[in-house]
Amino acid sequence: MQKSPSASALGPGGLDLSQAFFKPIPDASPPSTSKGNTKISVIGAGNVGMAIAQTILTQDLVDELVLVDAKPDKLRGEMLDLQHAAAFLPRTKISASTDYSITAGSDLCIVTAGARQIAGESRLNLLQRNVALFQKIVPPLVQYSPDTKLLIVSNPVDVLTYVAWKLSGFPSNRVIGSGTNLDSSRFRFLIADHLDVNAQDVQAYIVGEHGDSSVALWSSISVGGVPILSFLKNQQIAYEKETLENIHKEVIEGAYEVIRLKGYTSWAIGYSVASLARSLLRDQQRIHPVSVLAKGFYGIDGDDLFLSLPARLGRGGVMGITNVHLTTEEMRRLQDSANTILQVQSELGI
Ligand SMILES: NC(=O)C1=CN([C@@H]2O[C@H](COP(=O)(O)OP(=O)(O)OC[C@H]3O[C@@H](n4cnc5c(N)ncnc54)[C@H](O)[C@@H]3O)[C@@H](O)[C@H]2O)C=CC1
Ligand SMILES: CC(=O)C(=O)O
């Protein structure tokens, strides 16, 4: 029987508000109806892969967690170390192998394998090394889990998400990059710190490239439901544009600083990706800024490219892109960010 739209989805005059709020994904495949055991495979058991694995375990997100890495001893060591925590964790089957057949039937494959930046190095510099790895990693994931969703974390994440999409042949709603979900968390932390409020009450998005050309959407920031820029204007509180730019600069510099201090970033990306896994596997329909096929949204036309936009995530993957109002300047910066990604992508020859 055809399901009628819920009353709450209908606005005045029978308008379907959900349709107005989100633009649909053109090539979306229907969500898997499987409600059985949930299985996540994490490819790459390094700093990032293990931070993600441990956050997923503590948050009780899956029945089965699989680790894959190219280094068998390191992999077995990490698996045993997590298994030895069984008495303190929700029951989860943890296994590991260098053989991709272990990933068969995964609901979600999270790819973190690959080279990482050294201090001062840009994410975009990692491209050629990590594309070569993806050519070995993506085909077996697709072979063993043809219905899975791919969640890419390795850098440069936007271009590698495009590479994974091309290599997989999946519809774009099932290929997602962790994108600026992490940058937005850094942004929310800094704004919360300035205002002395809880970061969870700050609604703020960074979009575009996960990297130096990212775009802060100042015009849509709200704290506890109060739109910040119009509040400052209404209260005639003067603020320097430079102050805002400095907060965004601090977001961009944040990763470089952590890498300079401890060699890599791990905890925040672990929580960021676990939040995405929850929305995807538990069908939360939450809105996250993640790397998606951007063609056709926000005036980005022409070539296929992935960059972060606020996207609604559920069991089917990307369910729609939010229609946030962008100022002319934000639109221009988003286009510049898209051009930065396209320039790097043009070197790929894929
Ligand atoms: N998107 C984001 O927000 C973030 C992305 N990253 C990126 O995540 C990636 C991983 O970073 P880390 O974990 O710190 O590096 P890491 O060096 O600690 O770990 C990388 C792992 O990949 C494994 N690996 C290499 N080739 C493989 C293959 N063919 N198959 C399976 N595993 C393979 C290595 O053995 C190693 O264990 C980097 O590209 C880094 O830039 C890191 C933080 C945030
Ligand atoms: C390394 C990286 O991409 C980050 O922490 O943002």
From TrEMBL:
GO terms for MF: L-lactate dehydrogenase (NAD+) activity
The record's InterPro entries line, in alphabetical order, gives: L-lactate/malate_DH (IPR001557), L-lactate_DH (IPR011304), L-lactate_DH_AS (IPR018177), Lactate/malate_DH_C (IPR022383), Lactate/malate_DH_N (IPR001236), Lactate_DH/Glyco_Ohase_4_C (IPR015955), NAD(P)-bd_dom_sf (IPR036291)
All copies of the Lactate/malate dehydrogenase N-terminal domain together span 38-177
Q: What is its EC number?
A: 1.1.1.27
Query: Which residues make up the binding site for NAD(+)?
Result: 44-49, 69, 130, 153-155
Does NAD appear among the keywords? yes
Record keywords, A-Z: NAD, Oxidoreductase
* Top-level lineage group: Eukaryota
Q: Which family does it belong to?
A: Belongs to the LDH/MDH superfamily. LDH family.
The family database entries (PANTHER family) matched by this protein are listed as: L-2-HYDROXYCARBOXYLATE DEHYDROGENASE (NAD(P)(+)), L-LACTATE DEHYDROGENASE
Which NCBIfam families does the UniProt entry name for this protein? L-LDH-NAD
Protein's name in the database:
L-lactate dehydrogenase
Q: Which organism is it from?
A: Cucurbita maxima
What gene name is listed for this protein? LOC111491257
